[in-house]
Amino acid sequence: MAVHTTLPYRFFLSIALLSITAVSEPTDLTTELVSLRSSSESGVIRLNDVSKFITSVATPRPYSLIIFFNSIDLNSNPLQNFRREFGFVSASFIANNNNRSDVTNKLFFCEIDSSDSESFHRFGIQSLPQICLVDPSMENLRHHERGMMEEADVDGTAESVAEFVESRTKLTVGPIHRPPLLSKTQIGVIASLIAISAPFLIKKFLKGETFLHDSRFWQYGAVLVYFFSVSGTMHNIINSIPMYLRDPEDSNRLVFFYEEPEIQLGAEALSVGLLYTGVGLLLAYVTDALVRVRNVNEQRVAMVLVMVVSFLAVKRVVYLNNWKTGYQIQMYWPSSWQ
Amino acid sequence: MGGKQDPTTANGSPKSEPTATKNTTPDLLNSFFSFKSLKLKTKQQELLLRVSILGLVYVLAFIARLFSVLRYESMIHEFDPYFNYRTTLFLTEKGFHEFWNWFDSESWYPLGRIIGGTLYPGLMVTAALIYWALRFLRFFVHIREVCVLTAPFFASNTTVVAYFFGKEIWDTGAGLVAAALIAICPGYISRSVAGSYDNEAVAIFALLLTFYLFVKAVKTGSLSWALGSAFGYFYMVSAWGGYVFIINLVPLYVLVMLITGRYSMRLYVAYNCMYILGMLLAMQIRFVGFQHVQSGEHMGAMGVFLLMQVFYFLDWVKYKLNDTKLFQTFLKITVTSAILVGGIALGVGTASGYISPWTGRFYSLLDPTYAKDHIPIIASVSEHQPTAWSSFMFDYHILLFLFPAGLYFCFKRLSDATIFIVMYGLTSLYFAGVMVRLILVATPAVCLISAIAVSATVKNLTSLLRTKQKVPQTGSTKGVGSSKSSSKVTLDQSQPFQKNGAIALLVGVFYLLSRYAIHCTWVTSEAYSSPSIVLAARGAHGNRIIFDDYREAYYWLRQNTPTDAKVMSWWDYGYQITAMGNRTVIVDNNTWNNTHIATVGRAMSSYEDEAYDIMRSLDVNYVLVVFGGVTGYSSDDINKFLWMVRIGGGVYPVIKEPDYLVNGEFRVDKGASPKMLNCLMYKLCYYRFGELVTEYGKPAGYDRARGVEIGNKDIKLEHLEEAYTTSNWIVRIYRVKPPTNRV
């Protein structure tokens, strides 16, 4: 730190201050931040101009900033969840210190997106998620270690952020308010609906007329469960895998299929599941329903269609499987026909 | 399949797929068996065919699983089977009483393990019985051979059960197809090849048997079948923890039957008998104990049992009270009070701790993300990973396409039995999606439902072919729901196209089935017949190279270390060390004590001097690590290392995962984190490795498993010394030096 508080540095800084922020007084900046905050839903300010609020303000600044480094393009679920948690901390901080502007105006919650690569560079951000507290006296952003939240503490919960803030700023965040899963009115409506419909349902049930007594309901359910299972949807839910990825080399190209036997993408799973289910149901249709159709031409067309569709679907699945696993799975036709 | 001649009835209704034209085949067969003296009646011919097919399938199921014996030798595979083998050996040598009271001081040092109370004895007792039976018949085989061949033997038995089950839910044709399909289905073979002497080997047989007997009991309402099913359940409980699936699926089935208005006296008899007797029998297994009345996993069964009584009671009251209005009021009061009492009982039970909540494993099936977040020891096992679609393809092949078709046919001909198989299929398929290893449980159901599809398809198509020659014929059909649906299949004058189309489809079906057979054989020989204790690789000239390092190391331990030596290794190798090396281990594959495992994980991921203190406190004499850097063997300890850190860190917060990562990446080369480069595991794996040239054209210390040059080539050991390294460096054993004398 000491190196950078040398005279030339100071001189440069003061020049910068003079040239850029000649008009903005620190108090003006605070009011501007307050207005920015009030326009955002959870009170997290999208910080587009780092120099205006941080580097070009003379230290000590009248406020601290806590910055969440985000990346929308990364399309990462954990990161966005963490961002939401961060929002809860911000909202809770404002709500818990509602009538005390002296407290709320001391700390502002901000975020910087990776599209603002210049700011990322200024802070020297290498990995995400990252949270940085810019306290009133911090001057050089490159040497921000003391403001960084420690990697081990970044566990994605609002509590950890609140703890971090409280330990560094001596401000209290207070209890975190998370929005309930269902709002009170929703719960009320659902409860009353259940209460009203219960007698009818019970009556119907006793008479044996519900959808539960309809085999078609179970049939569709069964096919759905099958589809759900064979496509490996559980795999995607457990590992919270996205539907598709962006090609790292070309961000406009989307990747739907992943060449690795143990990993699959959402869209890939669904399409393969559809192929499986489709062929299976077509088989049942041909052998059970189609034989009862009286018109020969209809039969003929349907049959040819079914055969073509099944053939293509099976071929596709086999191709995908071989490509994905590297195993040459046994073909449905001799390999010389390929 | 073909030649049964049912008495034709002349009621004139157009009929029917199973028996439409049975007259052509008998003629054919008659000409085939034209010996005058050997002339068989049609029914006998059919029986002969059926029995011989089943016999062939039985043999096929056995021999398809012998690849590993032919290719390697008759040996026990993997990890858990070694424990089973060791206990079976103990059982045959010391007898059942000793076995039941066995306190094993050679594992989980210094805690030990009460073997009799912490295992499912079904497998060992089965193998021992077979062994004793063979000896009684004067076949003097070694117990190891019996253990190796137990799994194929039971797989063969499973095919027979599958046949009867298929016959029960559909017809004999479906039964035969089911037997053939399950005999070679990779999903089942993966866990039942010769040498994989594990609980699942007998458990799938027991599972299917229980289900079959239960379905039979529901169909007939007979107490004897229900009794049989209770005993089947008892065998299942004694063999595998997967019995929880039965005790939840059966009540679920009963519940669905109640909801869909299919309650019957048959169901009442079957379920009550099976539940009560099965529960009492299961309590005899010490490991299970009173869980049936105490644990949350079993409460569903009890709830359904009580619900059954309410249903029966209501039925009785309805019969007694002729006034409907009175009955309605009565109904309301009983239902409300029953639900209230049940809810209160459950609440009080849970609150007072009498009913234990669900175990982690069970919970992770219902909420699959649970294990990943909360129980690293479950999440770390590769077979507990969720299934990707390619695994389904690999294990089921065409059965996946046949399954929806089979579902369709089942719904077309709904009966108590088909409802059961559909529910079994769907629930198990869901669980298979959650955990790779549960594909095994789903396999019988998938085979059965697919068999229905094949059988029904073939039957529909052949009857289409035959109706050409014969004007629609009628026949009596068996089965509860069959007459309704079969009358729908009205086959009027078939057109020429139909015939051709049917022939084409038939050829297609048989072609697919033959491909299935080829795929299964190929998968069995390539993927599922490796013992994993002996590794095989292809050499540069396509020749097979065998790495027998594991056994080399274990025999070294057995021959060269004091008998009371304690060996520390990661838990994967615990069973093998005790079984083959005959030495005491700190932790093993029975992961019952997380703290103990975490202690080992902590030692492995600490610096040498810190680890030394831990090892001294555990009286460790030798440390064993598995290392694949020379051979390129990828499931070694370095690749498992992050799990050691995670499990260790779960109990001891001093161990932090980020310390071993660089930007979230796990590395062992120069860019690795300093903690990684100096932790005990790294040192033990890469000791002296920096001097070794593993691959031509690469620098010394090139790790072939990870494809990098290692970052710390100059490793000095202070408190340990190298004791033995196997010929391919796969297993390395270090001796822990005694503390230096204090002057």
From TrEMBL, chain A:
<protein>
    <submittedName>
        <fullName>Probable dolichyl-diphosphooligosaccharide--protein glycosyltransferase subunit 3A</fullName>
    </submittedName>
</protein>
<feature type="signal peptide">
    <location>
        <begin position="1"/>
        <end position="26"/>
    </location>
</feature>
<feature type="transmembrane region" description="Helical">
    <location>
        <begin position="223"/>
        <end position="245"/>
    </location>
</feature>
<feature type="transmembrane region" description="Helical">
    <location>
        <begin position="185"/>
        <end position="202"/>
    </location>
</feature>
<feature type="transmembrane region" description="Helical">
    <location>
        <begin position="299"/>
        <end position="318"/>
    </location>
</feature>
<dbReference type="GO" id="GO:0018279">
    <property type="term" value="P:protein N-linked glycosylation via asparagine"/>
</dbReference>
<keyword id="KW-0812">Transmembrane</keyword>
<keyword id="KW-0472">Membrane</keyword>
<keyword id="KW-1133">Transmembrane helix</keyword>
<dbReference type="Pfam" id="PF04756">
    <property type="entry name" value="OST3_OST6"/>
</dbReference>
<dbReference type="GO" id="GO:0008250">
    <property type="term" value="C:oligosaccharyltransferase complex"/>
</dbReference>
<keyword id="KW-0732">Signal</keyword>
<feature type="transmembrane region" description="Helical">
    <location>
        <begin position="265"/>
        <end position="287"/>
    </location>
</feature>
<dbReference type="InterPro" id="IPR021149">
    <property type="entry name" value="OligosaccharylTrfase_OST3/OST6"/>
</dbReference>
TrEMBL record, chain B:
<feature type="domain" description="STT3/PglB/AglB core">
    <location>
        <begin position="566"/>
        <end position="624"/>
    </location>
</feature>
<keyword id="KW-0812">Transmembrane</keyword>
<feature type="transmembrane region" description="Helical">
    <location>
        <begin position="268"/>
        <end position="287"/>
    </location>
</feature>
<feature type="region of interest" description="Disordered">
    <location>
        <begin position="1"/>
        <end position="24"/>
    </location>
</feature>
<protein>
    <recommendedName>
        <fullName>dolichyl-diphosphooligosaccharide--protein glycotransferase</fullName>
        <ecNumber>2.4.99.18</ecNumber>
    </recommendedName>
</protein>
<dbReference type="Pfam" id="PF21436">
    <property type="entry name" value="STT3-PglB_core"/>
</dbReference>
<keyword id="KW-0464">Manganese</keyword>
<comment type="subunit">
    <text>Component of the oligosaccharyltransferase (OST) complex.</text>
</comment>
<feature type="transmembrane region" description="Helical">
    <location>
        <begin position="329"/>
        <end position="355"/>
    </location>
</feature>
<keyword id="KW-0460">Magnesium</keyword>
<keyword id="KW-0808">Transferase</keyword>
<feature type="domain" description="Oligosaccharyl transferase STT3 N-terminal">
    <location>
        <begin position="53"/>
        <end position="449"/>
    </location>
</feature>
<keyword id="KW-0256">Endoplasmic reticulum</keyword>
<keyword id="KW-0472">Membrane</keyword>
<feature type="transmembrane region" description="Helical">
    <location>
        <begin position="299"/>
        <end position="317"/>
    </location>
</feature>
<feature type="transmembrane region" description="Helical">
    <location>
        <begin position="417"/>
        <end position="433"/>
    </location>
</feature>
<comment type="similarity">
    <text>Belongs to the STT3 family.</text>
</comment>
<keyword id="KW-0325">Glycoprotein</keyword>
<feature type="transmembrane region" description="Helical">
    <location>
        <begin position="114"/>
        <end position="134"/>
    </location>
</feature>
<dbReference type="InterPro" id="IPR048307">
    <property type="entry name" value="STT3_N"/>
</dbReference>
<feature type="transmembrane region" description="Helical">
    <location>
        <begin position="47"/>
        <end position="67"/>
    </location>
</feature>
<feature type="transmembrane region" description="Helical">
    <location>
        <begin position="146"/>
        <end position="166"/>
    </location>
</feature>
